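Help! Submission page says 'invalid entity' but I think these are all valid:
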Amino acid sequence: MTADESEAVDAFERLGLTSYEAKVFIALHRLGSGTARDVASVTDVPRSQVYSVAESLEDRGLLEIQQSNPIRYRPVSIEEAQTTLEERFERERERAFEYVDAVKQESATEETQEDIWTVRSRDRVDDRVVDLLSQAEETIVFGTRLPSLVTDSIERTLEEQAAAGVSVLVLSRTDTVQERLGALEGVETAIPPTHRDDDQRSGRIVIVDNKSLLLSVVDGDLSETAIWSADSLFASVLIQLIEASDEVQPDAD
Amino acid sequence: MTADESEAVDAFERLGLTSYEAKVFIALHRLGSGTARDVASVTDVPRSQVYSVAESLEDRGLLEIQQSNPIRYRPVSIEEAQTTLEERFERERERAFEYVDAVKQESATEETQEDIWTVRSRDRVDDRVVDLLSQAEETIVFGTRLPSLVTDSIERTLEEQAAAGVSVLVLSRTDTVQERLGALEGVETAIPPTHRDDDQRSGRIVIVDNKSLLLSVVDGDLSETAIWSADSLFASVLIQLIEASDEVQPDAD
DNA sequence: ATTCTGTTGTTATGATCCTACAAACTACGG
DNA sequence: CCGTAGTTTGTAGGATCATAACAACAGAAT
């Protein structure tokens, strides 16, 4: 089995198929159609197992069975298979989250909790940044040294919030960041004080409504870790610290 | 645990979580946030297991971990969780089918194969009908007694094909079917000969380009099973049989 | 017709892996 | 010393994987 194929099998497994199911499905697409023997001959799935595996695939709507002797199997088209799997996923997703939504605790109580949370990995920091930005009602301060940390969805959220009347200030010493975000309607840009920007490990900083804060650092291998806090005393104190230090060294270079 | 909750847990399991992961995730949404003890006290997940389960959920991007003593856990918002799962699903789907698409056998050879395929369950018959209809180049005959067997996507495909110049003929003894499909631009309707329509188990009939055929029957419990064949001798023979019997009893009532 | 051979489809049986579940253990603070 | 927090280890059960045995059947050879 090639590396590509085992990657595809792994992907199918993460979609909920067993490895046998994935292999049989792929083999049938390679063959067009075939019998249990045909499938077994081009995979490492034992022939005796093909029958039950194929039945399970039929249950999933991924192939059709020709009742003849020998039994022939035919995969549904790639488009139909994708649609079927997608419908199934959407159905399960709705069912799952419908209940969660019904029992979820409104974050009203959470506002007074003194919590600092940690978020690991770039994608999740991205998510958290967008989340915080979209909660802004009055002011946003967004800063980063690295253009790669300004994702499309962050840019879009900043633009939306600016349009909604939120005061948006972008801090960056990097030209591309300044140009990209400064081009957005209603977004101001500025150069941050030296002391913070000099730190080569600095990632991003987000301050929302002077109440919520996110700070991230980028590791040597470019992995990002962030801490954040919303509506907490911690956040207020940290924000005040940061803003105070800004005033100590205003626009120094 | 309520019935609703165990349904939600099942749904999460089908989305790829373990039952512990589902329970912890749900519990944390119910609590807003909490420690391992909190979670264990409202679920049947042993406290000692909460730690590892929560780590696995963090890896999936479904919760965040506060490094304190005791450790606190916080679920990401429902929206973020859904987005994360969806992105994961789409990523895996692409990876899986990219390979299948690369190795798939073009159905060119299949055209001459003498195969009759069986399709079980309504949804899949729907899919197959749409598939056959969209392959039409010259003529379509579509017949059904039951209005419920005319799905939106079937109606849409019939309309598209009629607009593309395909001759579309709808056979039905049922008024609602006649009215619904007859209203489409370029679609003709007619009343089928008696002998076939009298069969209470008849489902649908699709004839495409006089080369492909689908016939379905509806069981007592309304489950549907179809046979179909495309570009085969079988299909031609069956189509000729059907059309011949039409001529024997033209418009009889 | 009988025997032999090979194929097909079904079923049974271990091996292996992962989850579920339980219970130990360490560490720490009052 | 005791209760709590967090880690670690161990076991039972279930699903998947992998192999083998089996009856039914068809065609070829005798």
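Support: the input was valid. A stray whitespace character was the problem, and the output above is from the cleaned input. Residues 119 and 172 of chain A are 22 Å apart (CA to CA).
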